[in-house]
Amino acid sequence: MKAIVVTDEAAGLAGMTLAQRPEPAAAINDVVVAVHASGFVPTELEWPSTWVDRAGRDRTPSVAGHELAGVVSSLGYGTTGLSVGQRVFGIADWHRDGTLAEYVAVEARNLAPLPGDVEFTVAASLPISGLTAWQGLFDHGHLRAGQRVLAHGAAGAVGTMVTQLAREFGGYVIGTGRAADRQKALDFGAQEFVDLDSDALTDVGEVDLVFDAIGGDVQQRSARLIRPGGRLVSVVGPVEARPADGVAVDFVVESDRAQLQEIVQRVRDGRLRTNIGTVAHLDEAVAALDPAERRKGKTVVQVRP
């Protein structure tokens, strides 16, 4: 099968190549999925799991990508809940070969049924961005109606999901980003916007929840804005700044079938819009994944027509 592989951690995105790889076999409780579309998160090339297995041994060449939408082509021993020919979407295991390939083996529990009225390209853009927003806001952020939410990177693939979900559940959303991001963040529902290059973050006032997709100095300044009892939720690694009288949480997104179904239902009924920036076919994807300019939205690779 054709797949995009990485072999050199130092080379980063420039080290990706389109190659021929053996088709995967389904292990116990697995399914093999014929991939129709795959989402891509550029920072995965900085994750240790891309390069080593759980025991720390080198596992390159490894197939990149972790989000997928496609059709189940075979079942492993003991697999239940899914069937051959079924449309599915979800997240592949971090330590296994990924989804920028014609086929991928995935634990069945990491996939959810994909309704027939949702395009594969749309579905592939949802799992990591949607679940990260959902889990950050509700599982870790404990968002309640009426709370003020500071959403960093509000025009990005995760940030636009955060904004929409927080608004739906009664949050007041202040988005941040660069000046060029202002209109997009507002279009996705942010009620205010802060240009991190020129606006004073302190002008925001107190907030109940900071959703941080940036880190560094921005995180440090944001922690000081959190009300007593509030929360800082980070998706960029261990928290370096903590609110004086609140909780700081960093987390890694996990696949959750019920949450995936909540997210895709919102796409179907119009409550949730996707933020897809670039769509490229697998044969041309290497160039698209290492662009000359800043990404604007989710990058999706179309594997099958």
Question: What can be said about this structure in brief?
Answer:
The protein is α/β, with parallel strands linked by helices.
Please render the helix and strand layout as text.
Blueprint: E1 2-6, E2 17-20, E3 30-40, E4 62-63, E5 67-75, E6 87-91, E7 103-107, E8 111-113, H1 120-124, H2 127-140, E9 148-151, H3 157-168, E10 172-177, H4 182-187, E11 192-195, E12 207-212, H5 216-223, E13 226-234, E14 247-250, H6 257-268, E15 276-281, H7 285-289, E16 298-302
Parallel strand pairs: 9-10, 9-12, 10-11, 12-13, 13-14, 15-16
Antiparallel strand pairs: 1-2, 1-4, 3-5, 3-7, 3-16, 5-6, 6-8
Class computed from helices, strands and strand pairing: alpha/beta
Order of SSEs = EEEEEEEEHHEHEHEEHEEHEHE
**Beta-strand residue percentage:** 25-35%
Ends distance: 16 Å
Q: What general outline do the C-alpha atoms trace?
A: globular
Helical content class: 10-25%
Radius of gyration: 19 Å
Number of helices, where a helix is a run of at least 4 consecutive DSSP H or I residues: 7
Question: What is the β-strand count?
Answer: 16
Mean pLDDT: 95
Low-confidence segments:
none
Question: Main beta sheet: strand number and arrangement?
Answer: 7 strands, mixed
Structure explained in plain terms:
By secondary structure, this protein is of the alpha/beta class. The protein has helices spanning 120-124, 127-140, 157-168, 182-187, 216-223, 257-268, 285-289, and strands spanning 2-6, 17-20, 30-40, 62-63, 67-75, 87-91, 103-107, 111-113, 148-151, 172-177, 192-195, 207-212, 226-234, 247-250, 276-281, 298-302. The strands form three sheets. Strands 3, 5, 6, 7, 8, 15 and 16 form a seven-stranded mixed sheet that branches. It is globular and about 55 Å long. The mean pLDDT is 95.
